[in-house]
Amino acid sequence: HPWETVTTAAMQKYPNPMNPSVVGVDVLDRHVDSSGKLHSHRLLSTEWGIPSIVKSLIGTCRTKTYVQEHSVVDPVRKTMELKSSNISFTNLVSVDERLVYKPHPQEPDKTILTQEAIISVKGVSLSSYLEGLMANTISSNANKGREALEWVINRLNAEIEEFTASARGTMRNSMAAAAFVEK
Amino acid sequence: MNSVGEACTELKREYDQCFNRWFAEKFLKGENDGDPCGQLFKRYQLCVQKAIKEKDIPIEGVEFMGPSKGKTENSS
């Protein structure tokens, strides 16, 4: 899909069926800087489906984890960069992710996504089995992310089609009415 | 999609609709003649700030500013 389509979808990524744990999205700040780039700071709330007995023990306000996301969209150079890191009450594990969307250099109807993630435990980078496990999850999540955007793009296209169809229907009706009057 | 503050969800939806339209139809096409969603954003922001304080969400390094365009930096 062309970069504009992907970027528009990325701004409206949630909700989507591939990320059911994201339950809230809020814009904390948004502004266009002096070079014309749009900066957005967003807060994502996620709920991981913790069993209710655990919830009642630790209190429901502590079952949400939050992700802070900073995105920069440059409409002239056609790049969108997303940096996100999780905020949690325990600060035990942190995951920092960086995604960059750019138009494909050879095929302008396609977009290239590069994605990297840094996983740290209490400020020290992991290099163990756990890291491997999370890296697998993150790379399958990267695929999920692509599927999620496909889903959003299809939804946006369906909305446009619906709108066009109803506009066409309205026009047909008024044309038929005009023809009737003329007779 | 809901807001972190349940009371803010409606304000968020109104703002989101305005922003998404402006983003796709103006901003990405290089027409940046100002953000028409300023008022909606301000109302939504006030609500979100309150919710974040109430829920004690530890957000660092984010200043709560309005959608001002072309901010000048003080430090050189």
UniProtKB/TrEMBL annotation, chain A:
The keyword Repressor does not apply. The keyword Coiled coil applies. Residues 1-161 form the PRELI/MSF1 domain. Signal peptide: none annotated. Keywords: Coiled coil. GO terms for cellular component: mitochondrial intermembrane space. Pfam families: PRELI (PF04707). Residues 146-173 form a coiled coil. PANTHER family: MSF1/PX19 RELATED. This is PLD3B protein. The gene is Prelid3b.
From TrEMBL, chain B:
It catalyses: a 1,2-diacyl-sn-glycero-3-phosphate(in) = a 1,2-diacyl-sn-glycero-3-phosphate(out). PROSITE patterns: CHCH. One of its GO terms (molecular function) is phosphatidic acid transfer activity. InterPro entries: MDM35_apoptosis. GO terms for cellular component: cytosol; mitochondrial intermembrane space; nucleus. Keywords: Disulfide bond. It comes from the Eukaryota. This is TRIA1 inhibitor. The gene is Triap1.
